[in-house]
Amino acid sequence: MAVHRPRRSSLLRKQLPGINGLVTFEAAARHLSFTLAANELCVSQAAVSRQVKRLEEQLGCAVFRRTQRRIELTKDGHKLFQAVTMGLGHIASVSSDIRRTQSTGQITIASTLGFSSFWLMPRIRAFHQQYPDVKVHVIASDNAQELRSDKVDLALTCGNNQLQGNQTHYLFSEQAYPVCSPEYLSNRQTPLQAADLLQHRLLHLDEQLWDNIGWDAIDWPAWLDHFDVPGMDLDDDTAKIPAGFTFNNYPLLIQAVLDGEGIALGFEHSTGDLVAQGKLIRLTDKVWDTGRGYYLAIKSNLVHHPDVQALSQWLLNSF
Hints:
The chain is an alpha/beta fold. Helix content is 45%, strand content 19%.
């Protein structure tokens, strides 16, 4: 004889107190005042008292300790407040994301200035041709907080730290190598070895950029040290790097390289297209596979949204 098992939804309905009571309790517990909770919820103080009393009856315990002048949370009240705050906060966040996506009719993708300029933008037209009705909002930023903002639906980011609440997909490991323009080499000897680069004008990214974006620097000192160039020990304060222009973002740096101002570190998925087009030249045979992974991060509550699915799958198929 088959045994009937209650559905999970039926169990939840029996075990969970009423949502109105939980919302009222959260406001009263946060303010430690029925009066302030009533003002916030636009109800009477008596209504708050009734909701709290009903909640306590459902739980079979007191959640507030009442004194003449104020209320205090009981031990069980503290436990419930922590759970309700976390649960209602998550529901509110998810609801906000869903409403925002539905109301704006667009999905937001974020990546660094360099990756947006040199990889994403040359390809996004192909996505639009395939999905003409999907509206995409592109955010290009070298600020870690903006890349991980609640307003971002998808992000192309280095590393998968601080991506709680996201579904992540590994894309590639960053590779770094020296690049310059054909113009720069027109009246100079081509550097063949890593050490030869020290005789040339090297262009740099501002150290603050790496701090803002929250990544360890992939810069000339690190690259030259990786290939054991003499005198480039990162622990040696006397190590000398040839002076050159310093820029606060990657697109400016690469524009200077294209203009023949010097040699910079190229990142395969940012400058690879420019090398393939002959606009930039790879120098030496040294390529540093940094092991630094890039990821596609998708808001977990939006992974089944049709437009988000379309863009995320298109991105994954592009690598």
